[in-house]
Amino acid sequence: MPGGPANTLRWGVRTARSTVELAHGDTAYTIHGQLGAPRSLLVFGGFHFPRNCDRFFAELGGRLGADFCVLTYDYYGRGDSADPGQRYDEALYLDQATQLLAKLELSGPLDLLGYSFGGNVVARFAAAQPERARSLTISGPFGAWAPFLAPARLLPRIGLGWLLDRLYWRMLRGELARGFDDPTTHAAVIEHMLAVELEIRGRDPGKLRRAILGTFRHFPTDTRAKIESLAGRELPILLVSGVRDSVCPIEHIRAMHASLSGSRLVELDANHNDPWLVEPMREQLLTALVEFLR
After folding, report:
1. Rounded Cα–Cα distance for residues 65 and 67 (Å)
2. Which of 50, 19, 56 is nearest to 290 (CA)?
3. Cβ-Cβ contacts under 8 Å for 267 (sequence gap 6 or more)
4. Could you give the dihedral angle defined by the CA atoms of residues 53, 79, 133 and 243, in that order, rounded to the nearest 10 degrees?
5. Is the model's pLDDT at 162 over the cut of 70?
6. Cα–chain-centroid distance for residue 224?
7. Average pLDDT over residues 15-26
8. Which whole-number Å values give the CA distances from 285 to 30, 91, 291, in the listed order?
9. What Pfam families does the database record attribute to this sequence (predicted)?
10. Beta strand pairing call for 237-242 and 264-268
């Protein structure tokens, strides 16, 4: 059942975290700001869960001011959201976002932002429901311009998903460190990110494993056609990427920019897929997002 919102004042903005019951199971969400503000920014998070990025989006909500609320949520099977016990395909991801907005009575156009895997999801959402998009921001979109790597899709399909899962968690610290030019300088940030992921995974490892492997197995990648379908619409689009992002090559973002006439492109001197976790890129990105959204 939905839980009552836990209201706190964090990073200069009122933050409320709660859950709501949807058709495929409970969904956990966080509102930064005041629900019912004139404008709402819906964030489609990365492959796992947005908890590591909460502080950034709370600060973004604070800088945008009372005219905005910023809404983040846990995908099914991640964090505090339920495992729906069905295929993790495009329909499931889009239904979750659509039903969440309906439950929260958020109608009309919204500002949409998707980062990493969420860039793939948000592009599909905007293409499927163009009337819901006031603006679109895509940051380092994993699997949006080119498909997932074939081995990653093959292993769960032939019953070896457990191997992919085991390899990922063994390599996690190294992968997080690889996102920083100088990992030793950001050791505390890396350990915090790792601790958050491991703590949430530890609550129900099976749930997270099913969500990740199910997504590799069933979620369609190569969203290029969806992104190109946005061309010609009167839709403000901002594209963001680190120039050395190993998850989403900068060439992919530049190609998207070329295909979307009138879009804005911000290239950050960084190699992390979530640049808001890295100083001083964080401040640069906050400034760019506030300027674009306002």
Report:
1. 6
2. 56
3. 241, 242, 243, 250, 253
4. 40
5. no
6. 18
7. 94
8. 21, 31, 10
9. Abhydrolase_6
10. parallel
- Reply yes or no on whether the pLDDT at 150 is more than 70: no
Domain edges within the chain: 6-148+220-293
**The two three-digit tokens of residue 287, written as one number:** 């400034």
- Report d(CA 81, CA 221) in Å as an integer: 23
Among 6, 25, 49, residue whose Cα is nearest residue 103: 25
pLDDT digits (tens, 9 = 90+) for 164-186: 666 666 666 776 676 676 778 77
In this predicted model, what pLDDT tens digit does every residue of 99-122 receive, in sequence order?
999 999 999 899 999 998 999 999
Q: Which CATH number fits domain 6-148+220-293: 3.40.50.1820, 1.10.10.10, 3.90.1150.200, 3.10.20.600?
A: 3.40.50.1820
CA-to-CA dists, residue 245 to 85, 261, 273, 285, angstroms: 33, 23, 6, 15
